[in-house]
Amino acid sequence: MCHALDPGRAEFYELRMTLLYEGKAKRLWSTENPETVRMEFKNDATAFNGEKKASFENKGRLNNEISTLIYGMLENAGVSTHFVRKIDETNVEVKKVTILMVEVIVRNLSAGSYCKRTGIEEGRVFSQPVIEFSYKSDELGDPLINDDYIREMGLATPEDVAHLRKSALTINRILTDFFAKSGLRLVDFKIEFGRLVSNPSVIVLADEISPDGCRLWDLKTGEKMDKDRFRRDLGNFMEAYQEVLERLKANA
Ligand code: UDP
Questions:
Q1: Helices (H) and strands (E) in the chain, counts
Q2: According to the model, what pLDDT value does residue 9 have?
Q3: What secondary structure letter does DSSP report for 43?
Q4: What pTM value is reported for the model?
Q5: Which of 21, 121, 133, 156 could form a disulfide with 28 if both were Cys (CB 3.0 to 4.6 A apart)?
Q6: Burial level of 46, CB count in 10 A (0-12/13-18/19+)?
Q7: Ligand 1 geometric centre to CA of 177 (Å)
Q8: Is residue 132 within a helix (H) or strand (E), and if so which, with residue range?
Q9: Ligand 1 mutation target, pool 120, 145, 190, 234, most atoms within 8 A of CB
Q10: pLDDT at 17
Q11: pLDDT tens, position by position, 146-180
Q12: Is the CB of 113 under 6 A from ligand 1?
């Protein structure tokens, strides 16, 4: 006799699903609903544009849990996102979007490529958030671009860019407060946006929000609790993600 499959579990969908896209840390699968896709969090970690690679047990689960918690909180705060529901430990259902080929980075303190580019030491607190755009291209290494590049490259209209800036600043305020309640300082983060396939005039927040794409420092000790532990071989990589999740859960 055939086992009835539970529609709440990924295996149910697996049978009739096609892989639409495989990225460095996630896979996208079709669902039976033409307006949604399943986003699967992998255990892989990459850094330096894919030059450094490794796999870590539980990474997919931890990032999914963290991202789901953050998306729920952002939706409650009035931010429009692609999020629909969590399916299981490593899968979420999200609205199908056409991702804008522009990554939006928001910085509250100097770190990473900002320091490299300017020679400024890590940890300088900015008077106001710094917003950066980069062109989503693995081939070119996600180069820094500006509003004029975006317009001339046809990546988005000036009105869209104004919307991205405004949303990024709002999301930064909400996330900064949210992480602060858990004793974490939001140093910088990367977000992506997409146009709803069902209504392309609507741009929503898309992709994951996890310690893979945020710098989070312990507010008291300054300890790094994000992907820099992997980038810089600081050890206890997954332990830091687990700690972030536990603190967020305790304070959500
Ligand atoms: N970031 C990301 N994906 C990218 C580039 C950056 O998630 O392709 C995140 C990164 O984790 C950090 C922030 O965006 O939280 C700023 O990154 P930065 O430009 O300093 O780059 P990196 O340190 O990766 O060279």
A1: 7, 14
A2: 64
A3: S
A4: 0.93
A5: 21
A6: middle
A7: 21
A8: strand 125-135
A9: 190
A10: 85
A11: 999 999 999 999 999 999 999 999 999 999 999 99
A12: yes
